Request: fold
Amino acid sequence: MLLAGPDGTIPAVLDGVYDSIVNTATPRKALNWLRSGAGAPILGAIANGTMPRTHTALDDHPRRAAADYVRAMLVAHGALPERDEPLARLERWIDDKVAAIDDPELTKVLRRFATWHTLRGQRRRVDHTKPTSRTVTAHARNQINAAVALLDWIAARGIALAALTQHDIDIFLAGPPSRRYARAFLAWAAQQQLTTKLTITAAPVRAGTALDSEDRWQIARRLLHDDTLELIDRITGSFVLLYAQPLTRIAAMSTNSVDLDSNTVTVTFAVHPVEIPEPLATLIAAFAAGGHRQHVGIGATTTSPWLFPGHQPGRPITPSRLGDRLSPLGIGAGRRAALLQLASQLPAPVIADALGITATTATDWVKAAGGDWANYAAHTARNQIAQPPEEPHQMQHP
Reply:
């Protein structure tokens, strides 16, 4: 038996994993995975004691994808402590980046920056708020990559870090736009008195292309009314086209983000709930009530805390996978179009509050859409006393 320990019985800590496999809704799929799946031997080695049941052992396994899947199974059933996976992957990635630097002194500098600035910030976020998202770690990687590019650039030119000038930085910035992420490293280096204070100006905000308004509404109508499409695609696509939500936020939504009662359906994208009108409200209610959130993969738990579960047990769908699902529907730059429309109709504070974007970003979008809400603050102040108790935000659908 795959899960048998040295004494021929299943270790008690793996009882949940065993039950999830034998009770799966797809027995044939489970049997095929046990026979030929890359993760099955890893699980067997852990069960019989030839491989430690630890995150470190799984990190070191040469079959990284298979080991990560087994890790998700073990965590989902309490056989392995949960950890912040994006942060753990970031730590391993940083180790590889630091090891690739040839100059010993620059290696020390990069290690200090990565440890005391980048990773410290990520760990603080995990400790005090919520697990690190892929978006946040991607930003951290961009900062490390830019720091590496700068260190490589000055090493190739024989420039000492302490001797860097603003003129050198301006020449460095003439390269790829991604080099602007070196701003974080230079600010830290100046704080540590490794360089003088040097400036990297922010890249100009570009609205980019947006889906044509007529095309956007045509796709939105199809999402809302075409019963041949899968519910997950209809709902997530509507969140993009109608509520300007990024795929990273949609993918990470929990079941607690949706509130169903006898009269309304509300969804919390950021802080405050947004009341969802028909027909999207009915789709969301059907999705929740119809068991569509149940994950039936190998080793999965019966239910998932995520609104849109992913391939790995206990994990949400990834933004890239969600994008792959929505791409054939032609959504493309639909979020930009949604933001532009909302920005033309609503003041920046309302957009920031409802959609979970910063006030600065919301203001930029209002300006890009040609909105004029200069008197909004005064209008709000005049009417604040007369306002009824706060109700969920509501937006109209086509």
DSSP finds 19 helices and four strands in the chain. Residues 373-393 have pLDDT under 50 and may be disordered.
